[in-house]
Amino acid sequence: MVLDIQSIREQFPILDRKVFGKPLIYLDNTATTQTPRPVVDAITDMYFNHKANVHRGVHTLSQEATALLEETREAVAQFIGADRKEDIIFTRGTTESINLVAASYGQLLEEGDEIILSAMEHHSNIVPWQLIAVRKGLKINVIPMNDRCELDMDAYRKLFTPKTKIVAVTHVSNVLGTINPVKEIIAEAHRHGAVALIDGAQAIAHMPVNVREIDADFYVFSSHKMYGPTGVGVLYGKEAILEKMPPYQGGGEMIKKVSFQKTVFAGLPFKFEAGTPDFVGIAAFAKAIAFIKEAGIEAIGAHEEALLNYVTPKLLEIPGLKIYGNAPHKSAVISFLIGESHPYDTGMLLDKLGIAVRTGHHCAQPLMDILGITGTVRASFAIYNTVGECDALVAATRRVASMLG
Ligand code: PLP
User: Fold this and answer.
1) Active-site residues: which are they?
2) What are the tens digits of pLDDT across the range 386-403?
């Protein structure tokens, strides 16, 4: 199916904005995607018509709010092919989902146990593991990359020892765009009796994800990177594993019975959802999933891939421009540098031309160290980007390159 990009764009009022008098060209979709009207309308509708705390009220508003939240849970489960909605835990985002698993599953580990991460992880899939590693005396091993910035699968297989308990790897690199062979990575972890967490933050809005098909033990992502509200994230986990894990936080909602002598925890998913969740955001999140489903995730992926294939050779014609991340299997994320110039200067000049790109280390400093650079300029694409915007990016980058010498 070919997308009608113009009518899709009309659902995103922000795309009509001007920046420095130029039409906004938003290419910072890896950091966060923009939000279509139905999602914002759903937030307003919650506040104006259904706002009441969830799961605790007999009154009508509370029941409506609860139903809307639980409908989203069902929609998420269906979207990622999970068996049961109870295995979907709402968090504040990918970061909190990973912290939850590291802190909780980490308690089941013993001194000397090992964790495998990859060279291309976001800080949020590194630091939570370091925190638990220090507390429990665990060892972290890292999968290296080859020249094309793909994970070295032979090296990965050699990292396993009888002590390896967890593999935590990103589905798609937020810097390189590399799409990792997660099914193979998970299967290898399982062969060694380890569990696998996949950071799906950069995959979920760009390609079909089926947690059962890849056999993920944990899969995590953020709503705001998939056209949804901020402050909402998902942790999917396999029931048998989640059942074994201790709670992450204590408080209301996550208990069956509390006394000063003993507390009995609630079942899944509530055991991991202490306190009032962002029920407004979660309710509106269902509209983001509906938006993606209406366009079709395959069609979105194909559109973004076409933009990537169109713009990459054109950018490479610019003298001195180098792209970091050349995996044949990559998503529409382009990290680049122009000669010796600082990414910040490029980003600032592009902003003056109305083009929003991100600059810096992209929360992947270990990856920057491996690449021998301090940062890149990153252009990342989403459903609403156009070939015309690609041309504008190329023209503006060419102009910036000549200004920076
Ligand atoms: N993992 C990856 C691969 C990311 O790209 C990001 C954000 O850019 C995160 C995790 C963290 O997501 P959040 O800040 O929504 O928790």
Assistant:
1) 363
2) 999 999 999 999 999 999
